[in-house]
Amino acid sequence: MYKFAHITDCHLGAWRNPKLKEINLKAFQKAISICIEEKVDFIAITGDFFDVNVPELDHVKRAVDIMIQARRHGIEIYMIYGSHDFTASTVSIIDILHSAGLFIKPIEFEQIKDKIKLKFIQDKKTAFKITGLSGRKTGLDSEYYDLLDMEALESEEDLKIFLFHASISEITPVDLAHGESIPLSLLPKGFIYYGGGHLHRRIEHKPDDGKSMIVYPGPLFGSTFTDLEDTAQGERRGFYIVSYDNDNETIKADFIETKIVDIIFNAINVNQNTVKQIEDKISSMVEQMEDLTDKIVLIKVKGTMVSGKRSDINFSRFEETLSAKRALVSFINRNNLVSPETTQVKVYGTSIEEIEKKVIKERIASIKIDPAMTDEKVKNFIKSKLISEHGEFTANNLLLALKKEKIENETLDDFEERLMYEAKTVMGLSEINKEIK
Ligand SMILES: [Mn+2]
């Protein structure tokens, strides 16, 4: 009997709030401690280990300290990149930790003509052969899956595990089905386990062959308000311990919960309410809430106000009340609260990222090439960078590149140069790093 753990989407370093940041790290510590207790043979981490490619160093140190515990118990770690900790143009912290020998990246490949031949890494203890494909920033994943040398992947002998960081169309829940996904048919066949990352939801799928499993554990804690809202509404967070029985050739995946704190979620509909009415509603809800000690309290206020602006409402007063009631952290989400002055905004979403994506999609849809344009080179450039999904890809990546903040101790010149370099790379104006990490 062999056992391995599958952990994903830790998003370490996510959350500006120090308490949430800490809970997230605690969830990772808990997962690793359980892996050690359960004596798993190895751990597979399928991307978005960190929330960004260059996280704060104190957090990196603590994550490393936790991983070292597993390594000291002889537990090997296999890690692929996710869309959050991957970068095409510069170095990710994952590269540095990999160079230091902390874990193995089973994502090496050979490019033979126009095909990508993935290399397998054989785990010493279990003899499982592991390979995988990392997540990219956004979009274009399917292009890489299209290029895979499937025959080589499928004809490889022995027990195989495939690690990936992408949505699969057929098994993605409808409410998460924005953004790009790949069809099931693009996964190579004949593997015993397909370990997925990227979807922040727990999904177990058993293909018809009855011999394999596709599993998304979902995040250990979560990195957005929506994640926590899902948790409060019953989504359990944790990871999987997968056992393989050699004699019967059967595979079993057990979900292990890593809950650190309870989360309470309440929504208030304030459609067509005045500022005073909204304040009264929130106030009476907050007054009635009990038993909040050491819990995360989330309140979502939604609707279109009859008059006034969001900033007319004194939200911090309610947060103070909640903290006086000993809530560990409280959040009043007003992303879905719209004042009449802002109703010209036509897209809604629950997170900034989602709203940005929708706005970009809408704007890009209206970009067309002027039929009078004759220069083929320019036309092709526009097509490949600015039109339809290519345009969305460029815009989303440009936004991510320009969102980067100055790192402490980085000079302004270096920072500007780094931003410029990333932006140019996104626009295809510098030498593009064609390597797939
Ligand atoms: Mn993620």
Question: How does this structure look, described?
Answer:
The chain starts with a strand and ends in a 10-residue tail after the last helix. Mean pLDDT is 89; it is low at 432-437. Helix 9 crosses helix 11 (388-403). Helices cover 33% and strands 21% of the residues. It is of the alpha/beta class. It has a 6-stranded mixed β-sheet, with no helix packed on it. The protein has 3 domains: 2-257, 4-Layer Sandwich (Purple Acid Phosphatase, chain A, domain 2); 263-344, no CATH class; 353-427, no CATH class. The structure holds manganese (II) ion.
SSE blueprint and pairings:
Blueprint: E1 2-7, H1 18-37, E2 42-46, H2 57-72, E3 76-80, H3 93-99, E4 109-112, E5 115-118, E6 121-122, E7 129-133, H4 141-147, H5 150-155, E8 160-165, E9 167-168, E10 181-182, E11 193-197, E12 203-205, E13 213-216, H6 225-232, E14 238-245, E15 250-257, E16 263-269, H7 275-288, E17 296-304, H8 315-324, E18 329-333, E19 337-338, H9 352-365, H10 376-386, H11 388-403, H12 412-427
Parallel strand pairs: 1-2, 2-3, 7-8, 8-11, 9-10, 11-13, 16-17, 17-18, 17-19
Antiparallel strand pairs: 1-14, 4-5, 6-7, 12-13, 14-15
